[in-house]
Design brief:
Layout: H1 2-15, E1 22-24, E2 29-31, E3 35-37, E4 43-48, E5 51-55, E6 63-71, H2 81-85, H3 100-112, E7 117-129, E8 132-142, E9 148-158, E10 161-170, H4 174-187, E11 190-191
Antiparallel strand pairs: 1-4, 2-3, 3-11, 4-5, 5-6, 6-10, 7-8, 8-9, 9-10
Length: about 190
């Protein structure tokens, strides 16, 4: 247990050094080109294509991934140039006719590209995506460094596009510490015209 806490603290120190992050205030903030959210405090964010990654302490400690407007045939996460050029390592793609179960499988298949093990999902059910109807599920995995992580996802397919919020953090301490803040943000989601 001490080893896992030490790994989490090292990740905290290294994650805080990440470049390319900007500060998000605690006010209602636009996410991508279609959503807005009202966080209950300041966060750091980085944009990666259709995805915004928000974190408090660094992405290795906790991250909230807002995947906004993923279109039919697109991947839900950016790939490295090596993955893009190798057809065997390309992540699966979103399709507009996917069921919530298939979206959960898409998320786990995409995370598997990051060499995680012991991947499992559970609790797929209808859930609110802000004020809209959507779905949610939980996940767990072991990172390539041996750290046990938990995740919580809430999603919605609207106008043939995927909108998904994925919260991931180490099981030890951080996941539960920040879960209520993330759930507050999810509850505040709304689609912008």
């Amino acid at each position: 247990m001490r080893r896992l806490l030490a790994l989490a603290l090292v990740a905290l120190a290294l994650g805080g050094c990440a470049n390319g992050y900007t500060l998000v205030s605690g006010e209602r903030t636009k996410v991508g080109n279609a959503l807005s959210v009202a966080p209950d405090g300041a966060w750091n964010k980085q944009t990666q294509g259709h995805t915004e990654v928000w974190t408090l302490d660094g992405p290795a400690v906790q991250q909230v991934r807002f995947m906004v407007g993923i279109e039919d045939g697109e991947q839900i996460a950016p790939q490295t140039p090596a993955q893009s050029s190798n057809s065997e390592t390309q992540a699966p793609k979103f399709h507009a006719n996917m069921t919530p179960f298939e979206v959960a499988e898409l998320v786990t298949a995409t995370l598997a590209q990051a060499n995680v093990t012991n991947m499992a999902t559970k609790g797929l059910k209808p859930a609110k995506f802000g004020t809209d109807e959507g779905f949610s599920f939980e996940l767990s995995y072991t990172s390539s460094s041996g750290l046990e992580c938990l995740g919580y996802a809430v999603g919605r397919i609207k106008d043939k596009k995927l909108y998904l919020v994925l919260y991931i953090a180490p099981k030890l301490y951080f996941f539960e510490r920040d879960r209520a803040r993330v759930e507050h943000m999810i509850a505040s989601l709304r689609f912008e015209a």
